[in-house]
Amino acid sequence: MDQLKPNPANSCPLTILTFLERAAVVYCDCTSILYDTTTYTWLDTYKRCRRVASVIKSYGIKRGHVVSVVAQNIPAMYELQFAVPMAGAVINDINTRLDARSISIILRHSESKLVFVDYHLQSIVLEAISLFPQNLRRPILILITDDHLDQDSSPDFVDTYENMVKKGNPEFKWVRPESEWEPMTLNYTSGTTSSPKGVLHSYRSIFIMTFDSLINWDVPKQPVYLWTLPMFHSNGWTYTWGMAAVGGTNICLRKFDASFIYNTINRHNVTHMCGAPVILNMLANYPHAKPLKSPVHFQTGGAPPPAAVVLRTESLGFFVSHGYGLTEAGGVVVSCAWKLKWDLLPATERAKLKARQGVRTLGLTEVNVVVPETGVGVKRDGLTMGEVVLKGGCLMLGYLKNPEATSKCLRENGWLYTGDVGVMHPDGYMEIKDRSKDIIITGGENVSSVEVESVLYSSPVVNEAAVVARPDEFWGETPCAFVSLKEGLTLKPTETEIIEFCRERLSHYMVPKTVVFMEELPKNATGKIQKFTLREIAKDMGTLPRAISRI
């Protein structure tokens, strides 16, 4: 057979930007964005993105330059997911809950040339810029205004977003990647160190991940998607671009409010939502919650959802899908693929199954749980713990300016090591047990904080729960539970009662020796409970005395 080679007709670089171009034709008069009284069609969105991209380009932004965005889930934030790469730049969405120092570190490390700033967040970004060394070039600042507010802006901003839309070219010939391996997105991990790692994804990995996300969740054409997941979190798990592929309606909102969410779901016939388990918990515990008029598909990730929370939300009309992913993978890469025979199981059993992460999605080549030291897969017994490793075309290029961290994560043996601890069940479904740093080792036994938390969530009085290690004079460390209680309790439980509740449901060594009651547990911007903060609190409480720890 003759040797055939690629040619320009069949080797075009993969890019998700063509999804928007197609949506402007297929879904031209269909609603793309809803926000308060603002409505756009897909043709509007395509033209607005091209206009903004043309002005970005006019500021001297070149291929590969980083352009940052600090904004809530508003229309401009959505449009910039397309407009920035359309100008050839790398988009860097920044966590809106970071302090000025952290934002300053990110802007300097990424060498960001241009920053789009939500009006509500301008003060913290200006403070971040003020922390730059005097001899370092400042990025150009663009203000994203809100038509509903009376606004004053700092002279540090050279333009406004809407002005860029007005003066931009709607026929701008957007910049296509020369190679699908070119970097497209830069997301900084929400780590606890002073220097979070910058995760670079290519056009190729984003294209694969976006397709994979739609297929894995069985997203139909023209869904109504409510943005309860921050878009800055792995670019909204790629659903920012995915909604263009299927002509969906994006309902934008600035902040999460359970009452508003329920009203919006019923008013606009919302079909899909994403978010961390804490969002599910807030929806489940909303005191005025009523069953939904029509089912809503809810994809959760970031932490294993407690079975009790899944059970409650599904009773309200949410159909919960559980996925596992990380910034380095670009989105959900392992999910609990549902089997029809499981529909015949009792509700409690179904909820437990949904709490498992599951099997690899189609866009991932392999997933395994291995012994970190040897790389050998653990026994598929649902008990033996190891590190979760991944392999596939949706994975990151690496960490920006950090070859040491890149080589530690992307090993020469062809696997990405996640740092997550899990088990593999006999049926081939994986289950996350903890982050490696969150495993509690008490008397030589490994305790999964997730497993203890799941029991705490099954208590009728517990609203939120997190378990960390507390230093212990006898056992080395023991589980310490932090809980917030549900509203409206006439009689609040004691520490002893919470411990006894766990003792009836867990092995003795897994039972918390300490329970701390809090009004609300500390969380990051994606809704994850900040265990590093709780670990510091537990550490400051001091070592549990020998006499007490042996009880």
Secondary structure blueprint with pairings:
Elements: H1 17-26, E1 31-35, E2 38-41, H2 42-58, E3 66-70, H3 75-86, E4 90-93, H4 100-110, E5 114-118, H5 122-130, E6 140-144, E7 157-160, H6 161-167, E8 183-188, E9 198-202, H7 203-216, E10 224-226, H8 234-237, H9 239-246, E11 249-251, H10 258-268, E12 272-275, H11 277-285, E13 296-300, H12 307-315, E14 318-326, E15 331-335, H13 347-354, E16 359-360, E17 366-370, E18 386-391, E19 398-399, H14 403-409, E20 416-424, E21 430-435, E22 440-442, E23 445-447, H15 449-457, E24 462-472, E25 476-485, H16 495-503, E26 514-517, H17 531-540, H18 546-549
Parallel strand pairs: 1-11, 3-4, 3-5, 5-6, 6-7, 10-11, 10-12, 12-13, 13-14, 25-26
Antiparallel strand pairs: 1-2, 8-9, 9-19, 14-15, 15-16, 17-18, 18-20, 20-21, 22-23, 24-25
Helix pairs in contact: 1-2, 1-9, 2-3, 2-6, 4-5, 11-12, 12-13
